[in-house]
Amino acid sequence: MLENTPYYHAVGKEIEVFNHAYKNKIPFLLKGPTGTGKSRFVEFMAHQLDKKIITISCHEETSSTDLIGRFIIKGAETVWLDGPLTTAVKEGAIIYLDEIAEARPDVIVAIHSLTDHRRELFIDKLGETVKAHDDFMLVASFNPGYQRGFKELKPSTRQRFIAVSFEYPETKIEIEILVKETNVDPDVAKKLVAIGNKIRNLTELGLTETVSTRLLVDAAKIIHSGLPKRLSVHVAIVEPLTDDLQTVEALKDLCDLMI
């Protein structure tokens, strides 16, 4: 493993699949709930391939102009400034569009010509078409279950990618991740993962999001730095999940019994 490579524990054949996607210049889509290691995986693969990575966290205001570029006024003249997507296309970097379904529809339209045999980007404001560098790769992620399907990717877009589903790791691997990431005591890591699994199975609570590995890592970090275990679980796991007071109290009581 390269020096300073982000820690990532493979749970399937995702590393192998990503390498083949990169070699064959096929865009890569990561599907799965928040906090399951999608972003960490992309960072890990960029390190493995020794490639620059440019990450864009998409939201409802993210437009194609934000990605492609814009004219700006510099002193007495107007100059063109490449956006992150254009930079990646020209330099041969990996562009990672995190939560792509959150972006405006014009973003999807803008990347279509990069996700097929053309591998080119049309810059409307310059009237130019830029051919992608040989090493360029487009990677995107989205959460299929977010807000019960409110934001979905169209099949015509999904079918332009090789796709891999990310889920929460199995218990043994998740404990290992917590210990490796935070140096927390293995017994504490085991209890945190048990809490995570218990809450994930409480579907009757109607939580929009459930306990991610990321939340468990946060709890483990602050326990390791000396915050009391139950308080750590309350602030790092329970409170971020919901604002409903009754649900918060019920979850706190449940967690207190488990740690």
TrEMBL record:
| Short name of one Pfam family | AAA_5
Q: Which UniProt keywords apply?
A: ATP-binding, Nucleotide-binding
Segments forming domain CbbQ/NirQ/NorQ C-terminal: 174-257
**Which InterPro entries does the record cross-reference, listed alphabetically?**
ATPase_dyneun-rel_AAA, CbbQ/NirQ/NorQ/GpvN, CbbQ_C, ClpA/B, P-loop_NTPase
- Enumerate the spans annotated as ATPase dynein-related AAA domain: 28-161
Q: Which domain of life is it from?
A: Bacteria
Q: Which family does it belong to?
A: Belongs to the CbbQ/NirQ/NorQ/GpvN family.
User: Which PANTHER family does the UniProt entry name for this protein?
Assistant: DENITRIFICATION REGULATORY PROTEIN NIRQ, MOXR FAMILY PROTEIN
- Official protein name in the record: CbbQ/NirQ/NorQ/GpvN family protein
